[in-house]
Amino acid sequence: MLERRNRSAEAPHEDLVDHLVRSTPLQRGEAARVVLDVLAYFDETTEEFVRRRHRELQSQGLRNEEIFERIRHEMPHRAVAPPALSARQLRRLVYG
User: Which CB contacts under 8 angstroms, 24+ apart, belong to 51-55?
Assistant: First the structure.
């Protein structure tokens, strides 16, 4: 947990937690959890992102052709955009 007193390397996003506490109704612990959740979300590798999105979209009943096209369009909008991948490369990430 990020603590207010400890502004060391263990809590590099303390200023963001402070901002969330000031600008939202979140308590300090809740704001710290939100920051950690967002960081974990954007810490996904390209492979993890593709596999997760494939599972999510497949569970919605979409077919692979639609899924891979949608993932290709989503990838450049990630926080750190991964390289452009073809449908074949996406398929290989999912199925090996």
Answer: 51/93, 51/94, 54/90, 54/94
Dump pLDDT digits (tens) for 9-23.
455 699 999 999 999
Q: Are 46 and 75 in contact (CB under 8 A)?
A: yes
Token pair for residue 28?
A: 């300090």
Q: Which of 63, 83, 80 is nearest to 72 (CA)?
A: 83
Q: How far apart are CA 33 and CA 3, in angstroms?
A: 12
Say what the pTM is. 0.62
